[in-house]
Structure formats: C-alpha cells, structure tokens
Design a protein that fits this description.
six-stranded mixed beta sheet; elongated; 5 domains; Nucleotidyltransferase, domain 5; 20 helices; alpha+beta; four-stranded antiparallel beta sheet
C-alpha cells in the first residue's frame, strides 16, 4: 500500500511562494490568502499543512529552500509505507477539548508513537474530519474548554399562585449549558424581558464561578434587536453586560439549529428532569420555585451521563472550570443602555422621566446608561451628563448649567423669591403678587407681571407702590396696568372711603347721573 501524496504541481512556484509569504510574513488567514490569490481555501490549507510538516514556519525562507528544493518537497510523489496505524479518533476528539491543544501536536505525538507506519499530517486531518461527519449530530461540534455557554428559555412555563387572590402568574425558565462539559444552570423569572434576561446571565456566571469566552444566545428580542445571518445587531444593554464580564456574544444564526444544539438539548433535559418533576407542586413565590429548581439542578449535574464519562459536574471541574475567566472584581449592576435623541427642550426621556443635557446637543443622538442609581449620558463616546436616577413619570431632572443663558436667568426666579421681594415693600404688595401668581395655572406665567409690578417701586418709591397695592386690593383691581394708573393719577395718595356704598351716594359730579335720571 502506498502513502497518500500531493498532486504534481497543481499551482505555480510563484503562487506557492506567495502563499508562504502571506501566511508567515503577513499573518493572513487562509481565507484572506485564498481571496488574494484567487484560489480555494482548501488549496491554501493543503500547502500550509505541508509547510508545517516540512518545518517551514517563517518568512523569508531559509536559504536551503530554493525553487528546486520546494519543487521536490511540495510536488514530488513519495511511496507510502505499508502497515500504517489508524488513530483512535474518539481519543483525539477528547484531547482537543483544552484550548491550547491542536491537531498538529496530536499528530506529532501519534507519529512518534507509530514511527513504523503513520498517516501524513494532511491525511491525518482529512481522516479525522471524515470521522467527525460519521458521528451523531450532538458529537459533531468539538467544544473547547471554557469556550462557549449556550443560553435559551424553555418553551413550557411554570405557574406561581398568589396566596391572597388565587390568581396564577406564569414564570419563564432560563437555561444555560457549558459546551464542553454539558454543565447546566437553570432558574425561573417572571418574563423574558431585558432585565430578567440580563440578570439571569449574571447569576449564571456566579453559579459557574467564572466567565466563558463566548455566549451563544438565540435570536430573541432581549438579545438581538435585528437578526441577521452574518451581522446581527445586539441589544446594547446585553452588549454592555458582555463588556462588563469581558466576554463575547455570538448569536446563533437564524434557522440554523445546529448552532445552538447544546442549548436545545439542555432545554429538553431541564424540561424532563426538573419541570416534569415539579408539575404537580404548587408554588407561591418565585423564590420558592427557584429553591426547588436549585435542589433538582444539583441532582441533574451529579447524575452519571450515558454518552460521556463521569457526570456533568465532574466534567465541568476537570475541563471547563479551569479554563473560565475570573469574575470581575466589581459586581454587575443592571444598566439599561439605549439610544436617545435630545428634544428641543434639551432633555431626553428614559422610562417617562426627563433628564437634561447641554443645550448645544439639541437634536443629537446620545447613548444613555441608566442603572438603579445613576443616569449617564454619552455623546460620541464622551460623557456629557450624569443625573441621579428618578422614577417619577412626567417629571424633569434639570441642571442649570445645561440651560442657555437666557433660561438660566429665568430659572433664578421662583414664587418664593417673588414673595420675599414683594414683602420688602409691604403686606399689600406681597398679597397682590400672590394674587397674580394664583390667577395663573402655572406660577411661571405670572413672573413677567410680578417683575413689572415690583419695578414700579423704583419709579414711584416703595411707599407709594405699597399704597397703590392697598387701594388695588380694596377696589378689586387685578392687573398691573391698573396699579400703574393709580400711581400715575396719584390716587394712592388719596384716602380710601370708609364705606363704598355711602361714598358712591355722596359723590357729586357733573358726569354722574342721579336717581331721577331713571324715573
């Protein structure tokens, strides 16, 4: 039997050298090299593997590798040795789980053990891939230690009964499965909304005692705002969680169930081994339900697996746990992240409350980070405002420094300030100012009138303004213009009549008709 050999000169020597230059000199990927040279990625992989066999791993090439040497090494056919040893492919798959392990290293160890007859590296890789294709779908993916965490929700829900009313409320069951060990986490939440979704991840990481390299979610709205096979748009709050834990979110492709096969199997197991056992029990709180789920989860993870050695827990502690990233020192706090646009009144809206930003950013798009205590606003990555979080719907939180100058001056005036100013003239002036403000639906609408009234003190003296306001209150005058007329006509200097009815009868003037006029 002959060894497998590479075809004779399928590409030119120039292209062969260019493949080596781009791979070892420019550090390009096989696909990038293939695109640059207009060849298939498999061709690039073939010669890259061959170069590894020949210990060619750098550029420029060593002087011994002239064109003739390359021709002999890459394109010359060689007879195969007889009696080669077939590797144990299941053991190879098991060995590949650690992140640092490579097929090349396993092939070198295999070659040393079977020097009398062994596969070439190319044939070794080809045969391993062929073996993988013959396995069951659940065995096709070779998950690295600590690399992937698959997350999803169960289809069925659990019921929680309100003791006081007897009403039932449904609870969703969140499931997370480690790729390499199948170690499983589950908990119940009241919804699949963003906050429940994100906080389930945070509690899952605490349960694992570390953070995986990647999170593989389905395309639910709390995870992906715009599903796409190639470039899905992640929910910014979910992305912020990944940033905090220094991990990567890689959503499963739509309509590609193999991308999240671990999650599908994990969901099925939780439904059968946890939810089915709880179907006849009654729960009166979410905490009570989760305590029971945790109890059954321990049993599930310690149960012996049929298709893998040991239990999920033993596999996790041996494979996944040592490879997990450490938890961040600062605990995660739920932070709503959303894109907002600045309104014309230089405020943005978060959950029906309004927060101010510098007025120069009107109509600009900002990124808002709203935690339980703070609202932080960013423009083009630069922080532009920070406010304490408020949950008062319809209310405004405004900083004076965010206002235009004209608005800042207006903001300095308050009803209390006008009342204090008016009280300096006297009680009647203070009462008239209060009357002006009470006549309007909003006190701010009367500020201009109040300022106009009080400014009359500069022109006519404080004493005369107080007297004019006293006469205005006594005679039912309600407008500032009428008070000004009293001052201009000097009526403030005249005494008020004792009884309004008697004084009207005693007035004798040529322009006033008497009682006889009407008879």
């Amino acid at each position: 039997m002959m060894r497998m050999t590479m075809p004779t000169a399928p590409i030119s020597m120039r292209k062969l050298k260019e493949i080596l230059r781009l791979k070892y000199g420019c550090k390009l990927s096989h696909r990038q090299i293939a695109k640059s040279l207009s060849v298939s990625p498999s061709i690039v992989s073939k010669y890259a593997c061959k170069s590894a066999e020949l210990d060619i791993t750098c550029w420029p090439l060593d002087e011994k590798w002239d064109d003739n040497s390359l021709q002999q090494a890459f394109f010359k056919t060689k007879p195969r040795l007889k009696g080669f040893t077939i590797p144990d492919w299941s053991l190879v798959q098991q060995e590949l789980r650690p992140k640092t392990m490579t097929l090349l290293l396993l092939w070198e160890e295999y070659k040393e053990r079977h020097a009398e007859g062994f596969y070439s590296y190319t044939h070794f890789c080809r045969q391993y891939k062929a073996w993988l294709k013959c396995q069951k779908p659940s065995m096709r993916q070779n998950h690295k230690a600590g690399e992937k965490l698959f997350v999803d929700y169960c289809g069925p829900t659990m019921s929680i009964v309100d003791r006081s009313t007897g009403e039932c409320r449904t609870a969703q069951v969140f499931v997370a499965v480690m790729g390499a060990s199948n170690y499983t986490y589950a908990e119940a939440t009241y919804s699949q909304k963003l906050e429940d979704w994100v906080m389930s991840h945070a509690r899952c990481f605490e349960f694992l005692g570390g953070v995986p390299e990647q999170i593989i979610p389905d395309n639910l709205k709390s995870a992906v705002t715009k599903p796409c096979r190639y470039e899905p748009d992640l929910n910014p709050t979910y992305q912020q969680l990944a940033t905090h834990y220094d991990t990567v979110i890689v959503p499963a492709r739509p309509y590609k169930p193999k991308d999240k096969a671990k999650a599908e199997v994990g969901v099925q197991i939780v439904e059968r081994w946890i939810m089915a056992r709880l179907r006849n029990e009654t729960f009166f709180s979410l905490r009570q339900l989760n305590l029971k789920i945790q109890e059954l989860l321990i049993d599930l993870n310690q149960r012996q697996m049929k298709k893998h050695p040991g239990s999920r827990l033993s596999q996790f502690e041996a494979i996944d746990k040592p490879a997990l990233k450490p938890l961040p020192l600062q605990p995660y706090s739920y932070t709503l992240v959303k894109q907002v646009r600045v309104h014309i009144d230089y405020h943005i809206e978060i959950e029906k409350h309004y927060y101010s930003v510098p007025h120069t950013l009107i109509k600009q798009k900002l990124e808002a980070h709203a935690s339980g205590k703070l609202v932080t606003l960013y423009h083009q990555g630069i922080r532009v405002a920070v406010h304490p979080r408020s949950y008062r719907e319809g209310a405004h939180t405004t900083l004076e420094l965010h206002m235009p100058i004209a608005h800042q001056k207006q903001q300095q005036w308050t009803p209390q300030r006008f009342e204090r100013w008016a009280s300096q003239f006297g009680k009647s002036t203070e009462q008239f100012v209060m009357q002006l403000m009470q006549a309007k639906k909003h006190p701010e609408q009367s500020y201009r009138a109040c300022m106009g009234l009080l400014s009359l003190g500069k022109k006519f003296t404080d004493q005369r303004l107080e007297a004019a306001c006293h006469r205005a209150l006594a005679t039912g005058v309600t407008r500032v213009k009428q008070v000004k007329t009293i001052l201009e006509k000097g009526l403030d200097k005249q005494p008020l009549p004792q009884a309004q009815g008697d004084s009207l009868q005693d007035i004798d003037h040529k322009n006033i008709r008497g009682n006889n006029y009407y008879h």
